[in-house]
């Protein structure tokens, strides 16, 4: 479906005349079929067997072939001992094998646990142990970390995936050439595979799973998605097939997305709740063509646009901005895009304006969290959209704005905590009943931890966060986690971590450190190297400020807000400062996934 073109001129400010009844672009309620997620693939393969399901760096897979690969992988997982309810971990960047592994695990009734493939071994080990995963399907560079995690966990089998096997034959031949560039590219995609690992190719040698094998039930658990929630402690959000399918139906109705018509840019990582829902679930349900990238690379996206023009781009704002600029520099047409769905961080009006001017389609901002499947609110796909606003509740979704202390409703125009209730809201946290009860109230209302204002037209705007988490490039960083690791570094007496304004990526992680006198100095490179042993790339500090002391409350708690205010005012007593902006690589959150590249 092609939407009416946007004129690229956004409303200067919200006003009542902008508002439309929700029924103007989407129904107020939706009917969620009592089905499972893998049944959506089966339906798409039956209706559009020859349509391209995945175009991974020029190698295409039709819906018929995708389902066949999924059925072979599903039988292969059964042969490895996986049964309904077992957890299967996936540790991969975006690629065709990731799609296959995801649907194969769901097809046999297993629970998928997605992991960032750039996680350090300690973080991966924690999540594997916490979920009780029996099998991990990992791309080769992550295999050693996954194998090391078997000790002290339920993990018994690690399956190694060769990412280059998903490439076209010509690309694989180029990678095999005895050239320096080929060796460098190959090294970013492959890794040594110990004998203890099972090869993914051997799993795919199984016969197809019989059609008589039952699909999972709608209320069976589909995924455990690790998130910090509002507390910062990583925990698995339990989402059922009904949760995921409900959110897909809501997105489908909200966008009026036609089936068998869309081509989706797969730059968001599949392991992230936003990418998983919009690409792996919604994309397959609507028989769209997925064009996945192992990491965000605007030049690769623009190059793919020449041969396979895309219509839908789920993204974080920096992805939209950089793609538009590269396309303009290379003279590539973007007018095939009907719209972009932006989330995870505020959409600047300038970024929306540039996207809409370049494409003629809309830039639509939404809101959600892992616990809401993830999308709960969105701007209308119409001239009434308001960049900078979270928008309106999705169909079949209710919201309240309440006093965070009393949970009493507040009037429009008053700040309060956002509560959400709907069919996409998660079941709770894996094996954490107390935290589940604290965030998911008895009557089904989810406490988001976000402070918002709702105006008289119903539009909601985010104004603050209850917890001091940092949002960088769409990823959440919890200061306490970073601080805990930095305090263990030799020479560090104390530390405070805050988020500072960082342009198009939202915020950057900044550390204010007090030295203990045992080392003469600590550089930013030293700090990042130490933190990288325990933290993923986007959580590493981008700036270091060495200070003589940190402001504290009467009870001794470090006052992060005061630290941030001092840095903004330039009054922190810096003994030195370094800046890692432009460091790039896996630590650059706007690049989203890994340093794996393919020619």
TrEMBL record:
Start-end of Low complexity biased regions: 588-599
Q: Where is this region: Disordered?
A: 1-21, 573-599
| UniProt xrefs under SUPFAM superfamilies | Acetyl-CoA synthetase-like
The record ties this protein, via Gene3D superfamilies, to: 3.30.300.30, N-terminal domain of ligase-like
Q: Where is the AMP-dependent synthetase/ligase domain?
A: 42-430
Q: The AMP-binding enzyme C-terminal domain covers which part of the protein?
A: 482-557
Q: Which domain of life is it from?
A: Bacteria
- What residue ranges are annotated as transmembrane? none
Could you give a GO molecular-function term held by this entry? ligase activity, forming carbon-sulfur bonds
Pfam families named in the record:
AMP-binding (PF00501), AMP-binding_C (PF13193)
Q: What is this protein called?
A: Long-chain acyl-CoA synthetase
Give the species. Answer: Salana multivorans
